[in-house]
């Protein structure tokens, strides 16, 4: 199956929207790497909080959190001042103690996939700061997200990172 098109990606649930402002530009006149990183990272964190059972109270109430273990960013197209950016955060895969997510950052103005940011986050006991399995309720939400997020499309993943089995 060929990799997803911009049109297919744009139909995925939208996690965040931004407009590239002058504060996002680097000396080359396009959006700086740090802003792709921030937009993608925040969208994946928001997805965890809003849909995957790990709200802001997760640490205080359950003593659990996720720590980022690995990331990979791939840039496919530029974004310049005034371009509208969409971020689609999807759950890709999970193990008992880790989740693989991707933020598909689209340039909605130009109709292009601009960046794919992948992340592996490890689920930890906040007291010991050691990996622990996801609670059953959270694991069920993650499994449902993996099944539902991209069932009909081939994600444009790097192959550079994955859940270790």
Q: From the helix content, strand content and strand pairing, which structural class follows?
A: alpha+beta
Total beta-strand segments? 6
Q: From N to C, what is the helix and strand string?
A: HEHHEEEEEH
CATH architecture: Roll
Number of domains: 1
User: Roughly what fraction of the amino acids lie in strands?
Assistant: 25-35%
CATH topology-level fold name:
Thiol Ester Dehydrase, Chain A
Instruction: Give the fraction of residues assigned to helices.
Output: 25-40%
Provide the low-confidence segments as ranges. Answer: none
* Arithmetic mean pLDDT: 96
What is the CATH superfamily label? Hotdog Thioesterase
- How many DSSP helices? 4
What is the CATH class? Alpha Beta
Radius of gyration: 16 Å
Which of globular, elongated, flat, extended, rod-shaped describes the shape? globular
Distance between the termini: 24 Å
Largest sheet report? 6 strands, antiparallel
Protein name: Thioesterase
Organism: Aeromicrobium piscarium
Pfam families: 4HBT_2
GO molecular function, one term: fatty acyl-CoA hydrolase activity
What does this structure look like?
The structure is a single chain. This protein has four helices and six strands. It is an alpha+beta fold. Strands 1, 2, 3, 4, 5 and 6 form a six-stranded antiparallel sheet that branches. The protein starts with 5 loop residues before the first helix and ends in a 16-residue tail after the last helix. The mean pLDDT is 96. It comes from Aeromicrobium piscarium.
């Amino acid at each position: 199956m060929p990799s997803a098109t911009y049109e297919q990606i744009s139909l995925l649930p939208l996690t965040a929207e931004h407009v590239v402002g002058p504060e996002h530009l680097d000396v080359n006149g396009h959006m700086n790497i740090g802003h792709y990183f921030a937009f993608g990272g925040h969208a994946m964190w928001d997805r965890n909080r809003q849909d995957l059972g790990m709200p802001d109270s997760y640490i205080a109430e359950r003593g659990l959190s996720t720590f980022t273990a690995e990331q990979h960013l791939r840039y496919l197209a530029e974004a310049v001042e005034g371009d509208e950016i969409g971020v689609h955060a999807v759950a890709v895969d999970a193990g008992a103690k880790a989740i693989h997510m991707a933020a598909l950052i689209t340039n909605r103005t130009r109709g292009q996939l601009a960046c794919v940011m992948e992340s592996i986050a490890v689920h930890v006991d906040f007291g010991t700061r050691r990996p622990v399995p996801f609670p059953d309720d959270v694991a069920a939400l993650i499994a449902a997200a993996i099944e539902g997020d991209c069932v009909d499309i081939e994600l444009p993943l790097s192959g550079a990172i994955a859940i270790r089995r």
